[in-house]
Amino acid sequence: MSQQPPVPAGGGGEFLHAFLLDPARHSPGAPAVIESARAGRITTTTYAELGTLVDRYAADLDALGIETGARVVLESGATAHSLALLLACSRAGLAFIPVSPEIPQQRLLSIVATARPALHLQPPDGARTDLPDSVGTARFGPTGLTVERAPERRTPRRRVPCATDPAYIIFTSGTTGRPKGVVMSHRAVIAFYRGMLAHRIATPEDRIAATSPLHFDFCLLTIGLALGSGAGVVPVPQGLVRWPRHLLRVLRETGATQVHGVPSIWRQTLRHEPERLAALDRLRGILFCGEEFPLPELRSLQRLRPDARIINCYGATESMACSFKEVPNPLPDTVERLSIGIAHPGAEMLLVDGDGAVVEKPGLPGEIHLRSPALFSGYWDDPAATRSALVPDPLCPQSGQLVLRTGDLAVQGANGEFFFHGRTDSQVQINGNRVELGELERQLAEFPGATAATAMALPQPEGGLQLAAFVVLTAEEGARTAPAEVRAFCARALPPYMVPQDIYLLDRLPTTTNGKVDRAALAETAGAGRPGTAPA
Ligand code: ADP
Asked: Residue 203 region, left (φ>0) first, then alpha (ψ -120 to 50), else beta?
């Protein structure tokens, strides 16, 4: 089976690998991936070497005889090899599902049960065992793929890959209690990359540090910006991102000129290593995404990096992202809210009010709807959720065209720019990670003896949000349960960023006069750390 997506004449490519490895965009000897290993050793993979790796992995995948369109779970951090593998999947007509090596077994099994992948891949030191027999397993490394359990060989049902096929599926928090698989086609990802590249954020001289993990599409954004611009990508190992000295060391040693990350990656660095941050002489650009940047922290960052071009990137996994807006540096004192700009070229954001009408007047709130060729195809095997996110174009419902209903509230300024004003639902961002409080509440409700549970994201004095859980147990369970057990129960099923920091065991959930859970009273309980309700 060697059906490879064809590269259209003239280069460019309608498939992820062909688009990103388009030789017209970069010279073979230029660095594509720059990695910092221990003891200051830097490993550089050139574009030519990356191409060779992609060829080798694609040939290995092909040799396994997996049917075109099958899914491959890629459990890895971002490295030159994992990047080559995701491009090889594209080349072999397979969709990749990036997952974190820290994903709890239970959650991985739930993804496997839903997505029914043909193959699971991890690096030689990966610790995952115990996957169902239906999934082939292999390790990847310098000598290619080492198969542990061969995937089922099937007669290919469909042999011609199509640009509307899934390029990848990213599983994110879902309200129903099971992760939601956002399916992105080659066509959508490339439409997004084209829109992003039109902003000319990078040049071939750039080295762009990706601080987000591979399973977060922000990392795929950075990879697309770097490779799409002929620049180099610097994957920062996840274990180092939250340690300011290590992060700054990697940035210095690799000569990073841009850093991409969620706003919270800067918090500790601003506090503990401002001089070292100021001394990074090659850093010119900072791009953040995933949540609002707290303005005091942003201003501190600007004071240390008055020369930096800082870009606020807004959007959701369902379209990878959708706007890029340069933040004035310095930010005038009068600014109280950052602009998220307008959609990238080729797309449009609209505001829609509660009656479904398009909001035309500046200053009036509405929910952002995104008209774009870069929209996801749907949620994997979840038509009901797909129908509620992909809705008829409010500008012309008769056309049959669908748009993304984002769940984000915004207002438009007089010059047409958008300003983010929170969510219409209980989705929150914890250090840039998307969390559906409903999913956490479902997990809490599964705790033996739980009779009620509420989760909240509470602001912290040092900035950012933290998850708190309020759980009512039966008297019997309550008497013998420590809050830490509830937390451990969550950690077995949920990724680390969804595990509540503070657990409060209560006799009952307070209610408002109309009988709803009184969230203000719960926040007060958390703020006061009341005796008998001490968090774990
Ligand atoms: P992504 O992977 O693109 O960061 P997620 O799907 O994890 O996105 O989360 C998307 C949500 O995060 C958005 O719907 C919005 O609520 C919030 N968000 C993303 N970027 C920004 C931003 N720059 N400013 C404010 N909120 C943001």
From this structure: beta
